[in-house]
UniProtKB/TrEMBL annotation, chains A, B:
Its cofactor is FAD. Residues 1-39 are annotated as: Disordered. Residues 9-22 have a biased composition (Low complexity). This is Methylenetetrahydrofolate reductase (NADPH). It comes from Cyprinus carpio carpio.
Amino acid sequence: SSILAAHTSSKSDSSGVSNSGESSKESSRCSTPVLDADRTDRLRDKMKRRIESGDRWFSLEFFPPRTAPGAVNLISRFDRMGSGGPLFIDVTWHPAGDPGSDKETSSMMIASTAVNYCGLESVLHLTCCNQTKEKITAHLNKAKRLGLKNIMALRGDPIGKDWVEEDGGFNYATDLVKHIRCEFDDYFDICVAGYPTGHPEAESYEDDLRHLKEKVDAGAHFIITQLFFRAETFLKFVKDCRAIGITCPILPGIFPIQGYHSLRQLVKLSKLEVPEEIMQVIEPIKDNDAAIRNYGIQQAVEMCKVLLASGEVPGLHFYTLNREVATMEVLRQLGLWAEDPRRPLPWAVSAHPKRKVEDVRPIFWASRPKSYIYRTQDWDDFPNGRWGNSSSPAFGELTDYYLFYLKSKSPKEALLQMWGEELMNEESVYEVFTNYITSQTNRNGHKVMCLPWNDDPLAPETNLLKDELEKVNRRGVLTINSQPNINGKPSSDPIVGWGPAGGYVFQKAYLEFFTSSENVTALLQVLKKYEPRVNYHIVNVQGRNTTNAHDMQPNAVTWGIFPGREIIQPTVVDPVSFMYWKDEAFALWIEQWAKLYEDESPSRMIIQYIHDNYFLVNLVDNDFPLDSCLWQVIEDMFTLLDSPPETQKD
Amino acid sequence: SSILAAHTSSKSDSSGVSNSGESSKESSRCSTPVLDADRTDRLRDKMKRRIESGDRWFSLEFFPPRTAPGAVNLISRFDRMGSGGPLFIDVTWHPAGDPGSDKETSSMMIASTAVNYCGLESVLHLTCCNQTKEKITAHLNKAKRLGLKNIMALRGDPIGKDWVEEDGGFNYATDLVKHIRCEFDDYFDICVAGYPTGHPEAESYEDDLRHLKEKVDAGAHFIITQLFFRAETFLKFVKDCRAIGITCPILPGIFPIQGYHSLRQLVKLSKLEVPEEIMQVIEPIKDNDAAIRNYGIQQAVEMCKVLLASGEVPGLHFYTLNREVATMEVLRQLGLWAEDPRRPLPWAVSAHPKRKVEDVRPIFWASRPKSYIYRTQDWDDFPNGRWGNSSSPAFGELTDYYLFYLKSKSPKEALLQMWGEELMNEESVYEVFTNYITSQTNRNGHKVMCLPWNDDPLAPETNLLKDELEKVNRRGVLTINSQPNINGKPSSDPIVGWGPAGGYVFQKAYLEFFTSSENVTALLQVLKKYEPRVNYHIVNVQGRNTTNAHDMQPNAVTWGIFPGREIIQPTVVDPVSFMYWKDEAFALWIEQWAKLYEDESPSRMIIQYIHDNYFLVNLVDNDFPLDSCLWQVIEDMFTLLDSPPETQKD
């Protein structure tokens, strides 16, 4: 039975499963059903696996923004560009810009945001020139604490002309690489820079190659090159690197030309020469931005095709200049932009190493994942498999910082246009909600693109419920979160699918809304008819909580069944965390909406009234194989409200 | 909104959910989705809840068996009678019989078995007369260690006639109650005996009532009475107890008369008088056992009806004399016998307090739950929610004790009749498996009621697969475990349902079998076509393991979705524990089957050959909404085997 023998040996070696009771006694069991295998590994391992499988990747470079609104914009860009599936992003480091500080515009905080809030594997640049050992170590410790795992080790530009080497100081990137490996052992993955045409300050191309070899030998894991304009420049460089024994991955730095002036400036800074054939095309169209961008895209695509075809290039690194159109277009044309719009989980994953096992969250934060990540950032353990396995999760406070940092992407003027310069009454508010649902323009001609609880337009999944949602919002059932019931759709479903191939996803119908106390009184009457099919929690801003659910037992409302895995239940309705969410949900009325208006203004008082008097309600229909009964519940509530008073008492 | 106010206050008080972030910071989260709320509570709490809800219960008394086979029988009886839903059972204590020892016939071990292996809430009797404090404490410590939580505190019969009270010794049950409360605080629930007609040695009925009051005041939680023959005897006793301030539950001891001689003996021992009206019926039929038993059933039913109708009796306690027919019949006629044949979980629950959160197990032990419980008895934590959350579970060794203790219920002669006095070849073995599946008589006229891996006839669920199983066993695919795929049947389904009402249960199709290495060679060829739909593990006795599954990730094969709960996934195919199961599954060939035959006999050598050369295979069809493809896999394997050799290589 030779076939069998071949099969047997091929698998048994790698399985590591012992056949006796002894050896696995000490082995630490890791049976976490991690959905995305990439989440657990180090960047070098991910690269290794991709190289082995021939699966090409791309990465994206950004620089830190100058202003706080710029930071908000960049984070939105991370989300959009993250959906294309970069293997990692990197954030540059400019010593003059206080890059290691806690300011939301610092390199450190931008990289941390990318990891923690946008779920992106990130590389933080770090320069060492003119820095003390203590300062460098402090930066690295802070990076580690924030969940950063990768450093691009650079010398950086010396400040002033009369810079000379310091004995025992950080004179070259090699010193920094050595320091990182010495102080942090194997913790960080380290990237270093390569210069396809030699470093401008190097004595020679060969001398520069030797320096690169030193950096790699000191412990760097991969190389990203400076930009270049011809594929052969890079390919020769790789060949020369291999010849002197550099074996790690070498990633070409791709710079899609996006404008005449940015090209000139970059070339000047990097002391590169633009090839004649490119200048000849560009000069005649230098005042036509669109033409130059189109040329830049075409030129980058052609060069990348040559690079990829060479077999020497496992991944492409893009200098984005913090813009997205050109890079995305190049990647689309190369077929590297991920076309799978499905979520890895029904919420945004964080790339912080602490959170690698996290796979369940309360549904309440479905539209505010960054807020959830922020409020749980101090947790030591994250629920894995079942909500509440981690002991005593306590949510972080609602601080001003949080309210600033995660505030709406839209400026105040836009919000006023969407939500009304002036509110007349509660119905004006109902209208805002209804317009958000229908995405029709309001009476001032503006589309309502967001609400305080939803910074983005309606999810495709929620769109399935649009007609029903419109109907109830119009009557003052102000919905802020909902999902349809799903009874075993393929995990590949473009609207409700998530997770690995070959699986099935399920949901219980969920509806969460603010509504008046009169409505709640009727609703509670009506809900008696729906016991035990419907679970509810009803709470006002003071925390008066009415529920028919178990005090401590969460209700799984989203789950998936996948080949060869345990069940994943990413979202739950959890009674304990609902009380924390309640504080946040009510606070958003005031912080994001009421404060748009003058103190004591009627508009502000209307929002304040709603905040003070409305209830926050959530409903789960447990009978997921049947059509959701939640719309009927609301319908029954309105019927009861419309009926003569004496019938309301029964 | 008065309706609202009423609702709000009624629930918010009991919820204990805080509305601020602070108070739950320290609170230990308990979000275990325990299926049977009874599993977590103390016996006194269960009684309290049942009394409040008016839900009457019954309990069953057994005495320890004299012989090891008697112990095996009694454990089977626990399983059968446990399915009727007793609130608890109790095991008597006879100082002369070494009741605290480790022998499988001791009171201690029988009670421990009932708790740990049969999942029954159990009360261990303990007598104190002529015992040292140290000995008593040692017994109690041992009981606690074994997972026992309830003690029936008794004085016991003094040994010898010249017994006198010892100063500071255990002269009365009260002393024992005090000692338990003193040494073990509130750990044990304590039961004491009541004598409806007064203790035979008491000075008076009133004096005896005062003693009972002392026992309760010392810390007993409930009372079980000595047997009696008239309902009014008990009802007067309860009234008298209440009158002197005894408020705890008082359970009547019911003795269905089962035979003339056992009645005479019992009456003599307990110094009770049998009422004239009973003797008048019994004397004329004293040689007709059936007639007496029928009378006993009828008499007990009548008396119990009066007791239950009185409103004074929350539960009935039965002196079973280790027999089941009479008591079960009385309970059926009273409507107290649980008619729900569904499993609480798809495996036997243990009542050990350590295991109260356990809700997932490897499917391999589905037919051998006691073995699983035995082999995991030293675990400190049990998987809850997800398999492998508890760190490094190591399975206990296969010891002789284990092989004895959990051996077949059938004696050697019966096994030989079922499995063959003499085996001719491997096909003889196939026939045994096939006869087990079809439950037809074999060529010697005996039904095969069990196999080494299945001590009971085919489960109703497996019966659904009978025709397919017969077909493959006939050809040497020797199945030992299987389940059909289930795509969302109601949890109330009589065959595949389990868990709370209103839920839905699911399964992936599973098939586990032994088969020859030739078959496995073909199977591995065939399985390539079924990637990634089918996961497999294939292993021989040496542990050569071939699999296409992740090394460490379990595959959930049974799960349930219930109102207001997290997902429950009670069974998984776990790669690590499969290696432990493999040892057990192969050992059963030898220990239970081969050893029936003489050393060196052809029959023994046939079993030994299978043991040495066959493979153990498990298959999971991940695509649970579709018809199982596992039969097609086996079919394809046979087709390949039947095809000319050259086509087998493709």
